[in-house]
Amino acid sequence: MSGIPSQGVASGMREAARALLAVLEPEQVRELRAGPDRLDTPELREWTYLPGPRPGLSTEGLDGRQREVVDALLTTAHSAAGAELVRGAIEVERHRRAWAGHPGPDRYWVRLLGDPGGDEPWGWRLNGHHLAVHVLVTAAGVRVTPHFVGAEPARTGNGPRPGLRPLGPEEDLARELITSLGGTARASALFAATPPDDILTRADPFADPGLLPEGLRYDRLAPGQQRLLERLVGRYLDRAPEAYARECWSDAVRRGLGSLSFAWAGGLAPGDRHYYCVRAPDFLIEYDNTQDDGNHAHSVWRHVRHDWGTDLLRGHYTEQHF
Length: 322
Fold this sequence. Notes:
Layout: H1 6-23, H2 26-32, E1 57-58, H3 64-76, H4 80-99, E2 108-113, E3 122-128, E4 131-138, E5 141-143, E6 147-151, H5 168-180, H6 183-189, E7 190-192, E8 216-217, H7 223-237, H8 242-255, E9 261-266, E10 274-279, E11 283-289, E12 297-303, H9 310-319
């Protein structure tokens, strides 16, 4: 992959965050900076993808220019493909609210942590129903996990864009992999006939791959199946800015792809309720489409060391003591 270096990503985020501060009223800035400002406080690991208000500035009351600036900030945390995915999830949420009789402006909460104009670590997050993006920036790099995207419905049935499936590739690649398996390989990958009702890690503050079933290891797959698993993992890593996605993939290759594993639960046919996960030493991926008779999808990418920028913050605060 080619793309903007991490320093360029951080610079773009800084400019977008400063642009947001410039278009907000003083009271809105106070809401944007809600809560503790120290980036390693445990309270900042509290998150949810369920409906309901969050700390921060609600996008519901923003004017057109302010919403454009928030959208620009959100775009900086993603590759082109990742930005398209997030926009699709937001569009599906609009569809859901209109169908439920609650149309109106988007309802997400933006929160700024630290000073994007200074030299110290800073971050921001955008949270709401079925969307949770968490960003940490230091001089050493950028982190963007936990990263959660959901879609209710998983496939829209009417409206201006019927058949919209933001998470369609995430579902289709995994189904292609599980249905390509046979015999003992499929038996190892299938851990339950009935899928769990939600992702197993839920909104845990710390990612724990041990919560997930072991499944079928990469080194037991045929070459074509290995490429499918690589493409599936890539679909999640490629949500991030390209430089960071490359870093995560390079780390996985260096640790050995043989440590990757894939597990599935539920039916195999399109429309069946199902769940899958991918485990690696440093990260985990989960996807479920089980609620609303298999038309309500959740997906999450977590990183054991990088969630909340823990590794970067540890390095920064350690250096301050020397």
